[in-house]
Structure formats: structure tokens, C-alpha cells
Amino acid sequence: MASKLLRAVVLGPPGSGKGTVCERIARSFGLQHLSSGQFLRESLGGGGGECPRGTGSGGLAPSSLLASLSLRFLPCPGFPRTLGQAKALDGICELDLVISLNIPFETLKDRLSARWVHPASGRVYNMDFNPPHVQGVDDLTGEPLVQREDDRPEAVAARLRKYKDAAKPVIELYKSRGILHSFSGTETNKIWPYVYTLLSSRIPPVLPDEEH
């Protein structure tokens, strides 16, 4: 495990590779990675409790709840998503750094529109760079894949505009504090070495970058 606690978040629009980056951070620096949706389910449902209304079926959990839970597992991808969530997080901890992934919107549109999922497991496929072995069906179960409504081409542009509007004040807030680190590119593999270098200057890695 990392010898120093690092309070960090990774921001980026839908399809920007936040989850992939966080998984690599977790492996490289000995951290545990859970998405906000995962730790909502595990923290509130896994122990016999019930998730509050609004956290299922695509609903949004209260900002204060997500802020509190996010402290248990770092880094947390995509949180905070709004200025309200950022302020709720301020009331609980002071962030050391914020990583922002800047991916061209045209690249994001292509990624999201090519994404299909296996509803029962949540497994995600991309028809361009991670297709299933047999077109249209899940590799493990052979069950049909579906495209989420908000991944359909006509919905993607609206999602990206909504993210941009909500994220702008969050990014400006962290920029004004001098803790924002932005990385631009079209491929996660090309962005990752810069993220690794940044984090290596803050906490000792447990795995060398070559292993990724």
C-alpha cells in the first residue's frame, strides 16, 4: 500500500477514460479503486442496507452522501460532477490534486456511440477497439448486448453539452486553488505516462510504469 494518503479526484466527460485511468492508478500506487456507483451499492446495499431513493435507475445520489463515501476509496473517478458536489466535498476533506482529462468531443462521440453493454453484468464493449468475439453477444454468456439510450448517437451530443456546462465551474474552482492538472489527448495510453509521472512525485509507486 502507498505510504502516504493522497486525496485526489479524476474529472472528465463521459467516455474520457476516467475508469481506466483510476484502475491504473490503483494498481500502480497500491490504492483501492471503486466507482461512485460501486461504493454506493456496496456501502449502502452490501451490508443489508438499502440505497436511498434516487440512487438506482440512473438517478443521482445526494452530494453530501457521495462526498462522504468518496473518502473511503481514492481515487474516485468523475466525482465531483457539479459545483454543489465540490462544495460538499470541501466540507469533508481538502484535496491534494485534481486530474482533468481533456478529450476532443468528436473522439468522445465516436467512443460513446460505439459502446454496447451486457445488462446483467455491466460488461462494456466498444465495437472499434474492444469488440465482443461474436458481434452483438456477450463473450461469457452469449446473451444479447444492448446500447444504452444515452449512448445512442442522437443522445451523446446532449450528454457532452450537459457535462461541459456542469463541469466548467468545478474546473475553474480547482484551477483557482492551484491543484488542477489537465491532460489532453485522444488515447488513454498516451495520457497515462504523464499522469503516472505526476503521481510519482507525490506518492511512491508500487509498480513501475513499464508494467502497464
Automatic annotation (TrEMBL):
Record keywords: Kinase, Nucleotide-binding, Transferase
Claim: Signal is one of the keywords in the record: no
Gene Ontology MF terms in the entry: AMP kinase activity; ATP binding
Statement: the UniProt record of this protein carries the keyword Methyltransferase: no
Domain of life, per lineage: Eukaryota
InterPro entries linked to this entry: Adenylat/UMP-CMP_kin, Adenylate_kinase_lid-dom, P-loop_NTPase
Domain Adenylate kinase active site lid: 115-150
Family under the similarity heading: Belongs to the adenylate kinase family.
Protein name (record): KAD4 kinase
Record organism: Donacobius atricapilla
Record lineage: Eukaryota, Metazoa, Chordata, Craniata, Vertebrata
